[in-house]
Amino acid sequence: QVQLVESGGGLVQPGGSLRLSCAASGSIFSRNVMGWYREAPGKQREFVATITSGGSANYADSVKGRFTISRDNSKNTVYLQMNSLKPEDTAVYYCKLQQTIIRTSDYWGQGTQVTVSS
Q1: Which of 14, 46, 47, 71 is deepest in the core (most CB within 10 A)?
Q2: pLDDT per residue over 61-96, tens digit each?
Q3: Which residues pair with 9 in a beta bridge?
Q4: Which three-class secondary structure string do you get for 17-86?
């Protein structure tokens, strides 16, 4: 099994910054993809960014140029640096780890609230 624990959410004013962290533990394969998704009230969960164990990153168009995903493989931790935050970035942010050992499995964290408001 894999456990994911997110941290770093909070309340920030528009234009501000936050850094989310997600630490993974348990049965983790060296090759995996970690990422961030978000769910705003009344909306479906949506993709934000992912990064492979090799460091290849992808971003949603809505966050390109503002958010940066990174990871520390030695700590099985993924980060999301969020700059120039907007009220529409308000959501619960979830960390996900995907790995394939015979079959593909997805693991999710419990989520961390990010609120952008003045």
Answers
A1: 71
A2: 999 999 999 999 999 999 999 999 999 999 999 999
A3: none
A4: CEEEEEEEEECCCCCCEEEEEEECCCCCCEEEEEEECCCCEEECCCCCCCEEEEEEHHHCEEEEEECCCC
